[in-house]
Protein 1
Amino acid sequence: MKTRIHGWGLALLASMALAGCQRQADAVGVDPAAYEAFYLWPGVHPARDVRPRIVYLLDGEVRRGGPSRLERLRMGLPRLPGKTLWLVVRADRLDWNDATYAAIFDDLRRWQEAGNQVAGLQVDFDAATHGIDGYARFLHDLRRRLPRQWRLSITGLMDWSAHGDPRALAALAGQIDEVVVQTYQGRTTIAGYEEYFRRMKDFPIPFRVALVEGGAWQAPPILARHPQFRGYVVFLLSSVKSTRG
């Protein structure tokens, strides 16, 4: 069956196309100097004009294969007085054993005893292929184990579960203190982020939005008026290829 598009329909399609082109033209590259919260992976050093106030530091990974364990990636203890630190653990699996939990909690304690202001733990895990239900059970157990002095944060992918439906993340309310929604893959901003944030209108959990250094970004209007929006986190790049993707 053929569909006939009348003059008004053609005009509507043309206006939508122009609007999309305008949004793309208005987007600018993310300049870290304009922000205050950053992802800082080992080996990456901020430029002199970057002045972090909140820093998410990758401590280690819990990898697939063999017994569960924390593979530390950072040499020595960070000492960043006057800044708020989050200890980040990248996880490829959720079957953590007691030794894994103990190692992570011990690092939180050591970072704090070194004079840092440690906000808590962030788990960087891609639940897309594992299902949100199993992840919710894991986070419930982690929250039960994690000493109450530390908060719990997770990363969230825009293409996570249910075709990027933020309701999948909203189901975790009560288990976590913060979600950091990632808008990039590798070094590039994911297209279509405006639609994702429109669907976050009633999102019940405090959240930040992660941007990649140099990536194209134009803030969706909903963020400025969203009661749970807490600002941005910029993933800093270095001359060495990023380990995140």
Protein 2
Amino acid sequence: MGTNGKAKTAVEGRRALLIGLALLFCYSYFFYLGGNWNVDSRFAQIYALAEHGTLVIDSYPFLRPGGGDAARFEGHYYSDKLVGPSLLAAPVYRAAREVLSAAGLPERPAVGYALRFTNVVANALPSALLGALLYLFLAQLGLSAAFRVWLALAYGLGTLAFPYSTVLFGHQLAAVAIGLAFILLWRQRDEWSPRRALVAGVLLGFAAMSDVMGLFIASILGLYTVSLAARQRGTTGSVVGRIAPLACVALAVFSVQLVANWASFGNPLTFPHIYHAQESFRARHTAGLFGIHLPQLYPLYQLTVGPWRGLFYGSPVLLLALPGVLLLGRKWRSEAIAIAAAYVAVLLIHSGYENWTTGSVFGPRYQIVALPLLIIAAGPAAQRWPLAFRALAVVSIAFLAAVTARSPFVSEELGNPLGRILGEFAAGNLQHGNLGMLKPLELDGLASLVPLVIVVAALLVVLSRQRDS
């Protein structure tokens, strides 16, 4: 590589780093204050694994027996969440807990602070990394650096990736795994790398054991991988030889979830929802196929453009993925088909799910896993219609920033949660914890966001000054 090539690579690396830092600071600035069943159940699972090496959550100090997202089996409580994110987070929690306990902090505060720190390392950091890598990867589409910066920030701050990187559900980690796996698999087009295939297999397996939608998208990307392997030179046997290691690794990683099921409920195919502690929730998940029926028209409307749970209503920049996937398909047909199939599958499954409204949270969270693929599809459309793209990106970032600052948790009964959130945000009614509220600043309302704006603005100024040699 010549001098100019090395200089350009260095500039690209600095840009990616600055994007990652800006996203990480945004995600880490906010923290969970409690009160959500899903997050509390995840925290209980992390606590049980790290403190006692078990999936039984009876000893979690903040457990609410008989309520929340918990399963009950043979006299014990279990989290009803897939185990992937908790296995990743448990070592981080344990290390933080040891440090805080050694510093003399009592048990309950130490547990709470350790869990907040765990979200930063095990959720916010991977999400910020994905944003940085998306910037680098989108060069494969022939996009300029400016468009790639905009797209990376539009994904990181203008979609549900923003609020769900500040609270530890399983969806965003599954999205990170899917996004990274797709980036690796795309690179297999030109040169098949066994090592790259193995890493992609680990990521696909992790996505499948982190989120149910991750399982479906991982399966679709598995078929995409078969098409990639078949295009490589070689015999049919060599295609099998390329695919087999990836498939075996993915299945081995996913089998950890089956082992967890077996250890908890005596059957590898019995998932926690079957024994949900609340009868009404248990009935939802045992109806149809694990709670899934045929797609329904009204949920399809509300999950796309409707004001109640619409993905495109809250993140209009993602509308560009619709024409974008057609533009992408002109040169990268297999990739466009994989992206379209992944999103359509998620949308149809979501619209047929008993609990399609997703609870007292903002947006269609079951679609989060597909968002990295949608932002990639939006790339060609962004370059085709730059003014529309920038306008939609700014609106999306404004919407999701308000959502995150006010709180990702909203009443399930609100018909237009975004409208309510924007009103409360304008009034300074911020219910999500943020660093500006803490000592020594102790700022209130919108003033608590001033440090965030200053730091991110400074990072973006430095980013704008990174010029190619």
Protein 3
Amino acid sequence: MPYVFYLYISFFAVGYLFGSIPWAFVLGKMNGIDIRKHGSGNVGATNVRRTLGKRWAILCFFLDFMKGFLPILLLNQFVSSGIIEKTDFGVVIIAAASVAGHMWPLFLNFKGGKGVSTIAGILLAVAPLSLLTGGLAWVVVFYSSRYVSLASIAGAVILPISAFTFAHFKIGNEVPLPSLIMLTLLSLLAILRHKGNIKRLINGTESRFEKRVKQNECEEEK
């Protein structure tokens, strides 16, 4: 088999295994609980916020964010050092694998989070202006509605639109077409992972984010 095949397999393995580290679960265990049995049961930063508090949630978001950012940063370092040749598909594969690891982690029976934090990390490495645009959309929708899920969905919708717009008008760093397609697919996947939230938003039963909530409140997120 050609060398590039093994290279892509390595990219996928590294991204997936790194993405599979269930930081919300780990932080919960550090506090003596199984995060899956508290709050929404979701393995993500929002449920950590509701269960353990703000500081732990910030740490969880940062660690999940790094799942998307660090593998691509490492890949770029190998390219700049001449260890491997630059390949747009390498970025796509390692990014997709990181998100797959977060959503379907090997270490939690393939039941993970929704990927928002990890996708944000990928954006910082690949399309930082789109991260800024999606982040602004998240902030506006969240503070006007207090729905974390709706804010995340809005950010996911804005992401591919802004990425293609910036690429068309050559604004910011150049994002190759494979990465643009990858970002679009990841955005669609993130939206699909919120299907339960979407149903509750339509039915008017989705819980708003408050500073203090009951432990059995059930808003799922990142």
